[in-house]
Amino acid sequence: MAHITTEAIVLKSIRWGESDRIVTFFSYKVGKVRGIAREARKMKNRFGGALEPFTSVNLTLFDKRSDNLASITAINIVDNFSGLREDLGRISAASRMVSLVEAITADRDPSHKLFFILREGLQALVESEDQSLTTLIFQIHVLTYTGFRPQFDHCASCGKDFGAWLPRFSPSAGGLLCQGCNQASWDYCLEMSPGSVAFVQQTRRMKFSVALRLKAEGHMRRELEDIIDTYARAVVGKRLPAIDFLAAESLPVYGMANKNSVVEKA
Ligand SMILES: [Zn+2]
After folding, report:
1. Is 165 contained in some domain?
2. Quick one: which of 27, 92, 143, 156 could link to 6 by a disulfide (CB 3.0–4.6 Å)?
3. 17 CA to middle of ligand 1, Å?
4. CA–centroid distance for 114 within its chain
């Protein structure tokens, strides 16, 4: 039994039983962790808007069970990133960010770097005029720092150089394939131009906050979004919320207007 006090970001919140909620956080100290908020769905509850996804909080959990589900004993909002909830483009981009972090991380495996990238990513979305580009750069950094760094320097399967062949990206191999491995691959491989490879390499050499200033447009932008989306889906084993809200029929419905509304899947 132990108390844990930490900064955290709310990833998702689901109804539980008659009046409770189970909330998944990505925290600074213990990584992804789930906590139960008792009586969170009563009209008068002590949580206010602190359980809404994308909210940055100070959190105290009490671990008392063996199933990894802690009790939320105290929670205060540090920043609710209210600008994120003002339009659907920002909501869908933020929901993709938290969904990727939720899907890609193991329980209680802390990464301070990932915590800061998530917090900075949500903060950047509040101001961003191009939310899909902000999200693309976020995804490149998250994949890099969670051990799914795509391999571009040599063939991801056999390790050989590419020679004159223009390599193709294999989501299952996690990188570019040489001609021989591409022909032998059962996977659907995507074309990846040298410009797109250079963009990803430059992005991950930079600090996240600096990389957010990069621009990608036209064909290269579409190619990168396609590759990163396909790769992220291969890594997490499921579809992530689409960035383009109009194309996102299965996007979770997020509460916008009501301060005390708590977001959950429809
Ligand atoms: Zn090869």
Report:
1. no
2. 27
3. 52
4. 10
